[in-house]
Amino acid sequence: MKYAVRFVALGVALACSGAVxxxxxxxxxxxxxxxxxxxxxxVGQNQLKSWQFVAESMNGAKNPAGVKFEIVGMDSKGSxxxxxxxxxxxxxxxxxxxxxxxxSGAALALSDAxxxxxxxxxxxxxxxxxxxxxxPALTNEKCNYWHFRLDADTSQKMEALTSFMKDQPxxxxxxxxNQNYSHGQQVAKYxxxxxxxxxxxxxxxxxxxxxxxxxxxxxxxxxxxxQSGADTIVTGxxxxxxxxxxxxxxxxxxxxxxxxxxxxxSGTPTxxxxxxxxxxxxxxxxxSNYTGVMGQLANDFQKKFGDDFYTFSIYNGLVLMADxxxxxxxxxxxxxxxxxxxxxxxxxxxxSEMRKSDNQMQQGLYISKxxxxxxxxxxxxxxxxxxxxxxxxIEAYVASTPTSCQMKAPT
Length: 411
Description:
The chain has 411 residues and is of the alpha/beta class. It folds into two domains: 2-152 and 290-362, Rossmann fold (3-Layer(aba) Sandwich); 155-284 and 365-399, Rossmann fold (3-Layer(aba) Sandwich). Helices cover 39% and strands 20% of the residues. The strands form three sheets. It has a seven-stranded mixed sheet with strand order 7-6-8-9-10-14-15, with helices on both faces. A five-stranded parallel sheet has the order 2-1-3-4-5, with helices on both faces. Helix 3 (80-92) runs parallel beside helix 4 and helix 5 packs parallel to helix 6. The radius of gyration is 21 Å and the shape is globular. It starts with a helix and ends in a 12-residue tail after the last helix.
């Protein structure tokens, strides 16, 4: 947290130093293209409020570039095709920065659209900030110079998660349940690869892919898990697909260790709490009990909206942009992209790097565990009296995975 504090202090010091930059006082508009309605609309709405709230907290003199960030929500309804239509509307309205995260299908479509647009429209280039879509293809075979991923990708998270799980002797028979699109398929793939290397004695006793956002009752899947004899569940589900799955587990009284990517996301903690403490783990770049600047942001966000601030990558995205604009002395998207590519900066959990070869954030990751709040971990997630407490920090170099990206900078 000392780095986050230093960042804010540095921004104030620079803004007050009398230095005059070309971009100081400018408004930088970011179109947040996201599913703000539909089955995952509650997550999108939370993240729109998060973008706007964090931007407000670091605008003007509170960032080293001295700019004002303005976040405009644009509803893609969670559809890749609607995301493309919304992107066209954003470009027509003059946006040069877009943000999106929920759904790798939409992310892949947007990344391709941004690359093609930029190639055909010199002088009107768009930068894409991806804060949550984690398909490794986005920074490997389908990488794109204009796409910057702020989250860790599926392979990084699974490398960290399996490094933790290999030391859990209770993990012997694992059931995989994931959403049937690129993210869910990749979770299953990388889990199998990781455990084959680290715990070949553990077996996969079930591997289900469920239609994205369509299953209303997960009871049949829970019955299959129970019948399989599984002692552990691994899921990359998020939003309603995780909330309803947890509800079905509770209803069936099936209490197995649950390893997740997104258990802290809107709606799921409340259902988790109705089932008690349990043994639920989450792999993420953050946890629920930060102190310092991030802890203050989380507490203030909950007071203002009655909701949790959990997409911390948004903070890193705005820090990265502000640092890059200060370095470039410009808000021009081409100059800012060049400054962000390869940039090292102080993120919310310490040293972070936007890797130059593929624009994939390199950062430390946490394993956190669901438990009752206590003196050491006091943040009450969704005001349930429970929290995600950190149990292990995985350094960036441990979670880092190689890239096959061959992207080229514009000439």
